[in-house]
């Protein structure tokens, strides 16, 4: 049956099981928007195209499906760039569809023309400039296939207006992907498995580094089987959080720049590192020259270009992590690393001083209090979407996840403004989940306009603004490394309660710890999105901290706090350790 | 660091050269030479890419090339026995008195004279980079007016064609994310 290119877009999206598209209309994408009204796909009008890409990203990460964002040519498409780069760095499967000026105008600097495929070339897994109606269906099919398979990632389709307007016989069956050069699935040779098994069976101080790949390949259960059989403790990357239950005795917590001290020490002391679906980002390795000096490394990774990129692997098992672990797990010997695990647990005791939950309640409000209370009151069950900065690290440290896919955060790109829109997208993917966006006062203001999107869509997310009046993480770096010269970090914010009210939403303000529980309860019981303005201590820092480029074991630890204690004798003894 | 030569078969589609060039720029790999041309298969082009890199980086270059959806096959020819050729057109300034000398020199290098005027000759030569560099050196004193070179094309010796690399086998594709 003959269809216009615009109709073919929606016919194709329907066949890819797309239920919701996040977008913003404009001239070059108008034919597609006009055709949209005849299809049952729900469109969410965002307030900025960046918001649309983050929503699609949040939707994808919460559901495991491909998220879809749509925008017009030129500024519409360039506004998507941040969201596409975010998805690229975190391997999130999204498909972005942008309108392009008619093919006859391409290259003539037409109104709202931008070379979007050129701009997004290094930040997409693949992209298409579609100028002919007969290519639309196949390109969309290929885009979804590429986005979702192998190491996932964003794919952009730039479709000219004349291709949307022209008509063509729509035949989905005949539009199967033709991708002779695309190899999403590779497997290592059997000899590599033998080497890995020998290393695992002979290790005395092994450690698993579990990354995003565990979640993306759905390897949670096989990881657990592997861990329990081999008795190897697990450290997680930021994006790996949730891939292994936080309460499991072999889960050590997060590694890296703001990871747990005992985890970083364990990495430096290990004799075998098993990197599962992780790429040794500089935020987890610190100085690569001194990283895990005693350890052999087994790198299991779906993307061969990650092997030996940062850390040289002694054994590399390329492949889908779940497949590899399913092959590996039955073949390893049951392990016993009691001595090593006891040693780690001893270090754990020493490091507990950074846990400011131990502080006596003096009425001061700390971000860690807020996030810890949020964790307790939501029983660790909420789906948390964070922005980027101090609150993000505190969330990683204090909101413990036993279940997978409950933490959505911009790890690789560190995109401020990600929190609220990704939460809206996540909520649309999981309407029954309790969704919280946790953001700083800085990042929240970058995409706060999406509150209106939440209101218009009647989406309930709760927004916890960790408001310290600074761009906190930058301020922390200025405090540590730039002699407290606070250049451009003190920040005035609007009244967030009134801002929420202006959007027709409820707003609450919390200034003391005693109010935290009530506010969280009120937010959970209120219909519709609620913004809570948590006025937290202004100059608190995230500890421990490995300075950028420093050795992983060289952490800055929490100094003895300046806040008044109820009684000096209330100070935990471990504080002495902390000041060393 | 040493010179690595890759042969890459790519889909002959708009923008593919840009994707490859952009990859090298973005990952800060040093291209010495990049040539592209048609192959025996319609719709498939062959690139010969020479990169200054250490061995680990060369492996990454190969893996990164494979990651491009339009790249069909990549072969690292560095350690293989290969035939390598570069073509140069060199326009040399001559006078009636030294023209014969230039032509004799060209003859020694088995180069050909493809254009002659009273003031100039164009010398055409193919061969390895070393041979062409040698010819250029002896022609330079006469005055080189203009020069164009194609860059290296390279092919492994023997009956075998380009081989799929790296040593990995295709597995079943798992589509979509976990439940």
Task: Describe, in plain words, how this protein is organized in 3D.
The complex is a heterodimer of chains A (about 575) and B (about 180). With about 575 residues, chain A is of the alpha/beta class. Chain A is globular, with a radius of gyration of 25 Å. In chain B, a hairpin with a 3-residue loop joins strand 6 (about 110-115) and strand 7. With about 180 residues, chain B is of the alpha+beta class. The interface between A and B is large, with 47 and 36 residues. Strand 9 (about 185) of chain A pairs antiparallel with strand 10 of chain B, so a sheet runs across the interface.
Determine the mean pLDDT of chain B: 88
**CATH homologous superfamily descriptor of the largest domain in chain A:** Thiamin diphosphate (ThDP)-binding fold, Pyr/PP domains
The number of distinct β-strands of chain A equals: 21
Please identify the oligomeric state.
heterodimer
The fold-level CATH name of the largest domain in chain B is Alpha-Beta Plaits
Count of spatially separate domains of chain A: 3
Range of helix content of chain B = 25-40%
> H/E order of the elements of chain B?
EHEEHEEHEEHEEE
Low-confidence stretches of chain A: 564-580
> Can you tell me the CATH superfamily of the largest domain in chain B?
ACT domain
Quickly describe the structure:
Chain A has 580 residues and is of the alpha/beta class. Chain A has 24 helices and 21 strands. Chain A has three domains: 2-175, Rossmann fold, CATH 3.40.50; 190-350, Rossmann fold, CATH 3.40.50; 365-535, 3-Layer(aba) Sandwich (Rossmann fold), CATH 3.40.50.970.
